[in-house]
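Key result, reporting period 2: structure in, sequence out.
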């Protein structure tokens, strides 16, 4: 689930913190923080998977309370149960892997009932919910599609959601939500298709699991040399090296370390990934600036015999 795009993002974020807190923060401490950041990202995936289960349970209790109140209406006595009987939610509830992770890591939104009520009320007022309840379709695919759409259009964009995740962990930011939302919706689709391995593992394989630590370490080790190369290229381009913002420098150092260290990753892939990171995490002009410096860095490294891959 945590792919290399997300790993690169976490490496850059943690390098930024590391550079700001040296020498108090050692490399060993920084690597430990990176590991914690990646673990918390996987935990957030499980939090998002848990939300439909708990919201559905709240709605079920609401319907039950209305049914048992003094002098209920006909609609309250015989409510439309399509939402609470959603097959995707039933599968999420019954999934042993999700249950075990939730118990082990105390994954629940029930400690924030105000947030749950706000999100549920917005769902119940949405056109997605009303169209779903009025539709005669009654199958696993439509049940899954409802929650995919709710995630994308109602839950993830909501400002209360952003506040809720940032209050729960310093490692969680709005920047994580779009990518994690894609993974959650992918899991919902796989569950609807009957895939027994729908819940995504933290990493695809051992190579990916070690990628962040190796990249972080290589970047720190090569940073003096990378910075000298960046300064040389900036000066030759008639830029002022002292005006380079810290995030731009970290992104370029990380890109150079990746291109020099990981032989299996094509240069073009590394360049594209870090130019995109610059657009997301630095200034508006950073993408174009970093693109120019990194392309010149590739030429210089090849000329010096420090990089041979295509």
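The corresponding designed sequence is given below.
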């Amino acid at each position: 689930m945590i792919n290399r795009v997300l790993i690169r993002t976490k490496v850059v974020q943690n390098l930024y913190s590391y550079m700001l807190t040296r020498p108090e923060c050692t490399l060993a401490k920084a690597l430990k923080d990176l590991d914690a950041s990646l673990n918390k990202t996987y935990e957030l995936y499980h939090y998002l998977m848990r939300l439909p289960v708990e919201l559905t349970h709240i709605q079920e209790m609401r319907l039950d309370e209305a049914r048992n109140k003094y002098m209920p209406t006909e609609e309250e006595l015989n409510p439309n149960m399509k939402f609470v009987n959603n097959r995707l939610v039933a599968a999420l509830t019954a999934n042993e892997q999700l249950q075990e992770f939730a118990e082990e890591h105390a994954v629940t939104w029930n400690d924030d009932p105000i947030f749950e009520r706000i999100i549920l009320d917005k769902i119940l007022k949405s056109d997605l919910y009303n169209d779903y309840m009025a539709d005669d379709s009654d199958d696993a695919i439509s049940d899954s599609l409802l929650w995919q759409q709710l995630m994308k259009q109602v839950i993830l964009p909501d400002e209360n959601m952003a506040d809720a995740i940032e209050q729960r962990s310093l490692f969680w930011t709005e920047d994580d939500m779009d990518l994690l939302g894609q993974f959650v919706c992918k899991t919902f689709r796989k569950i609807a298709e009957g895939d027994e391995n729908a819940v995504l593992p933290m990493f695809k394989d051992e190579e990916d699991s070690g990628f962040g630590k190796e990249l972080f370490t290589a970047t720190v080790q090569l940073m003096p040399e990378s910075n000298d190369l960046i300064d040389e290229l900036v000066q030759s381009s008639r830029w002022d090296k002292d005006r380079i913002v810290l995030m731009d420098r970290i992104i370029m150092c990380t890109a150079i370390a990746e291109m020099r260290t990981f032989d299996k990753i094509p240069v073009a892939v590394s360049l594209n990934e870090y130019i995109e990171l610059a657009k997301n995490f630095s200034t508006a002009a950073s993408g174009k600036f970093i693109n120019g410096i990194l392309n010149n860095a590739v030429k210089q490294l090849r000329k010096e015999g420090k990089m041979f891959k295509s």
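The radius of gyration is 24 Å. The mean pLDDT is 93. This case is discussed further under Risks and Mitigation.
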